[in-house]
């Protein structure tokens, strides 16, 4: 069944003014033309849409339903027009990104910089969140794109693999563990630890694995910034466990050493997610393609024998 946009527009005007004459005046057309269009709509849907009363009109239940859907249609048309006007003006869309701090520390800024090289007039906002906050932002429509780890449950989200990293242990150079080539969580259970944000995925994983060993971690300080964690370690206030691969090497304090955490659960993937790819804007789809294409190139080069470190 096909609906004429002009007829729907006249119907909305009549419903909002509750008067054929007022609607005709608003739409700059004759009352008879408005009345004819409404009658044709009623004939098309096969039921009465409005009651003609002495002092105006009143919508029937079917009329209220049509009004709701007609408004949705016109809102979508307005959104489409605004987006196309942005393209015509050279503005390729607006993207709101929620990301965990690990990605924001290193790999995301570089990826966004590369994207903006090709699409310099795209407007991008970036907001730091915990992994749970990223997924919640996507589900609630507050974020267009999310960057979070594979440790975070993401039911209802379309995701793509992006980067990989592994947890490492930061110790100061004079620490008893500093000479070790790798460490396990059991080696750290008696250590004072500088921990991440309590709601972070890293914190949940560490606490879960410590419980499996029948212990709890001794966390004396909690900070959200990985750079701050490294600074606190350098001051010998504790050791830290964090995805150090995601930190720019220049950001690490000279007084600390990163030792890989040799646990199977210490490896993770960073994911790119959207609520529904099919409904995403062209600019969002272009960004996702840019991010995942870089990951695919890295995997192809690894397969051909080249060693590629993705950060």
From TrEMBL:
Entries under InterPro entries matching the protein: HTH-type_LysR_regulators, LysR_HTH_N, LysR_subst-bd, WH-like_DNA-bd_sf, WH_DNA-bd_sf
Coiled-coil residue windows: none
Record bears the keyword Transcription: yes
Keyword Lipid metabolism appears in the UniProt entry: no
Domain spans labelled HTH lysR-type: 1-60
PROSITE patterns in alphabetical order: HTH_LYSR
GO molecular function, one term: DNA binding
Keywords annotated in UniProt: DNA-binding, Transcription, Transcription regulation
GO CC, alphabetical: cytosol
PANTHER family per record: HTH-TYPE TRANSCRIPTIONAL REGULATOR YBHD (PTHR30419), LYSR FAMILY TRANSCRIPTIONAL REGULATOR (PTHR30419:SF2)
Family: Belongs to the LysR transcriptional regulatory family.
Protein name according to UniProt: LysR family transcriptional regulator
């Amino acid at each position: 069944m096909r609906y004429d946009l002009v007829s729907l527009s006249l119907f909305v005007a009549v419903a909002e003014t509750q008067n054929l004459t007022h609607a005709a005046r608003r739409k700059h057309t004759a009352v008879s033309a408005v009345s004819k269009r409404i009658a044709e709509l009623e004939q098309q849907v096969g039921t009465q849409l409005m009651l003609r009363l002495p002092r105006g009109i009143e919508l029937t239940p079917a009329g209220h339903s049509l009004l709701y859907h007609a408004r949705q249609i016109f809102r979508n048309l307005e959104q489409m027009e605004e987006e196309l006007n942005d393209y015509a003006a050279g503005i390729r869309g607006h993207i709101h990104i929620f990301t965990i701090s690990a990605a924001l520390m290193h790999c995301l800024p570089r990826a966004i910089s590369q994207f903006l090289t090709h699409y310099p007039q795209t407007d991008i906002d970036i907001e730091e969140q915990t992994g749970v906050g990223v997924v919640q932002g996507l589900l609630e429509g507050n974020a267009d794109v999310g960057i979070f780890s594979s440790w975070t449950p993401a039911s209802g989200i379309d995701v793509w693999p992006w980067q990989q990293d592994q947890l490492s242990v930061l110790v100061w150079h004079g620490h008893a563990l500093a000479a070790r080539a790798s460490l396990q969580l059991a080696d750290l259970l008696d250590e004072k630890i500088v921990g991440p944000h309590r709601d972070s995925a890293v914190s949940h994983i560490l606490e879960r694995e410590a419980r499996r060993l029948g212990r709890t971690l001794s966390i004396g300080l909690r900070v959200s910034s990985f750079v701050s964690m490294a600074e606190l370690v350098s001051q010998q206030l504790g050791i830290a466990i964090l995805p150090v691969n995601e930190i720019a090497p220049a950001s690490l304090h000279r007084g600390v050493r990163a030792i890989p955490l040799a646990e199977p659960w210490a490896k993770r993937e960073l994911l790119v997610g959207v609520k529904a790819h099919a409904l995403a804007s062209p600019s969002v789809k272009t960004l996702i393609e840019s991010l995942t294409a870089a990951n695919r190139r890295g995997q192809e080069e690894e397969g051909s024998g080249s060693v590629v470190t993705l950060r």
